[in-house]
Structures are given as structure tokens and as C-alpha cells.
Amino acid sequence: MSFPLITDYRKALANAKTRFTTLEITPELDQFQQPLFFAGNFAGVFRVRDLQGHPLALKCFTRAMPELERRYRAIARYIRTNRPACMVDLSYLPREVYVTSTVATSGDYPVVTMPWLEGRSLGAAIRTICSKGNRQALAALTRAWARLCLDLLERGVAHGDLKHDNVIIVPGSKLKLIDYDSMFLPEMKGLAANLLGGVNFQHPARKPRHFNATLDHFSMLVILLSLRALTFDPDLFEAHHNGENIILSRDDFLDPDSSKSMLRQLLRTRDRYTRECAMALIKSCKQEGIMIPGIRSILTAGLRVDTVERAAEPPRLFSFLPLR
């Protein structure tokens, strides 16, 4: 099935009063008085307002996604039933917006709606915090991240595309996840992953067949290690951030033993927790499986981090890691 272009959706949104089956919305406009949107790989997200003036995110798909309806109905049902603190309610509307398309059949297409989150992305927050050298804030972010990840592991679900742009810090310093296209739920067992996530946060050997509750292990550790390293050296962000990562990149994962690898550099830091996390990530990079056996222990230790370097050798944080 072909989907319309984002420009086709933009034209439909410009006439929103006549194009939607159930929604009554008004698109917010950009400086050119056109519907405001943010483009992604599989969809575009428009910022709109409902009849009460509440801002919504309206997701319109531009590429086919296997089992799209099945996945999103399951995700909406899961969030509505279980209320995970890091996720946001959403609605999947299968035949909602009528689009006259230049590349696909003109007709009704599905959309996903959710409340528009007011806040900053994790990446934007890290940039500001590092520019101020606020190590206490970085330690607090590390603890908050560990807490979010442990909650996902406890629930047996996976986001599938954890990265700095898919985490929003909302008022109250709470972390929320957005973009659920890659999400795994137990009832999706047997399906293949439809996306492989941002390459600077994913295991280099990840394939579509990797689709289970271990899906987030690697990216959880990438972000945890990045936050912990920045706590002691905020300047690393300016030196190694490229817009698509925090401080680690796919090249580090492909050749973790290289003298140029950031992972190798982090093994030489004074902080033992940073070294242990780097060792675990290097070990994972060298394996074909994406599961990290000790991820719960690593994250649990992350709940207690502060701005003090833990340089002493004993006691060991993670019993599965070698001391050398």
C-alpha cells in the first residue's frame, strides 16, 4: 500500500474542516501560514488544536508499515489499561483524513493523535545543562533515566527506538517517551521489527528478527553511560555530539577497541561506574545477541549515582564483569 506525501497531507490540513471523519481540529501555522509539521522517516507530525484549544500531535503516515493497525491498536490499548508513567495516551483512527495524493490513491488514511508534550527533548536539555557545567543536573538525569528503564524492563515491554530526540522532559522534570512506531508488547510476539532505530543508539548487529522485550537493552546502556560520563566531563558533549547522538556513535560500536573509540577512552576514567558501563557496552558490541544479561543490575546501581567519582575497586558493581 502506498501512502501520500507529507505535502499531500499539508494540503489536506489546510482545509481541515472538510477533510476529517471525526476530528475537529485547527492546524497551527508556520511563518508562511502553512500547517506546521515535523517530518520523520515514516510519518509527519502536525501540531494542531482541538475545539477546546488543547494542542495535539497529529501523526500522518507517509510510508507503509507492516501490521500498522494491529500494532497501534495494541499500543493504545496497553497505555490506556496500564498507564505507564513514561508514556502518553494515544488514539489510532484508521480512516480519518481524506487526502488527494500525487503518488497514492486518493482517499481516507489513518492518523494517530496524542497530547502535544510541552517540554524539551533530552538532547536539548543535555546541551543546555552541559553548557552550564551543571553536574548535579546530569546526575539527576542519570537517576531519572535509570528509573524509566527499570520500569520498562519490569513491564516486559520495549520502546524500540530510544534516543535523545524521543525522550521529552516535561514540567516537573519527568521523562516521557514519544514515537511508538517500533514498540514491542508481549501480544506482538512473532512479529518482526518494522524499524531498527537510530544507529547511534542501537546494537550494530540488530536485525528485524530482534523483536522482544530485550530490544532496548543496548540503547538504555548507551544513554546511561553517556549521562554518567558527561556528569564528570560536560565538555564531552561539545566535542562529540553530532546532532544524531549524545556522545557515542555507531563507529564506536563497530570497532570498540579502536584507539579512537569513545568507549575505549571511557575505560580510562576515574569513575568506576563509568568504566563498568563502558565495559558492559564493549562486551555487548562484540556479541551477535542484543540482550545485555546484567542490565538490571547496571540500571539499579544508576538509581544511586551522584557527582562523586567512585574510584575504589571493591566492591564490584556487576558480578558478571571482569575486574581487569
TrEMBL record:
Keywords: Kinase, Transferase. The keyword Transferase applies. It comes from the Bacteria. One of its GO terms (molecular function) is protein kinase activity. InterPro entries: Kinase-like_dom_sf, Prot_kinase_dom, Ser/Thr_kinase_AS. Residues 31-321 form the Protein kinase domain. Gene3D superfamilies: Transferase(Phosphotransferase) domain 1. This is Protein kinase family protein. It comes from Rhodovastum atsumiense.
